[in-house]
Amino acid sequence: MPQAGGQVGHGSYRARGVPIHLVGIEFAEEDHKIVAFESDTIAP
Nearest-5° angle of CA 23, CA 32, CA 30? Predict the structure, then answer.
């Protein structure tokens, strides 16, 4: 999937040597409440 605004993606952040934080959130279809949450950090 292309990045918004023509950004390169995580590659430029990895080159900087900073951690990358990934966040996933799942919402219920009916009431749009959060039903699942997951996060991970990729070390430089």
Answer: 140
For 17, which DSSP code? T
Q: Is the dihedral of CA 16, 18, 19, 20 positive or negative?
A: negative
Q: Indicate the pTM of the whole model.
A: 0.56
pLDDT digits (tens, 9 = 90+) for 5-19: 444 466 677 778 888
Residues 6+ apart with CB under 8 A from 9: 3
Overall number of domains in the chain? 1
Which residues form the domain of 8? 4-42
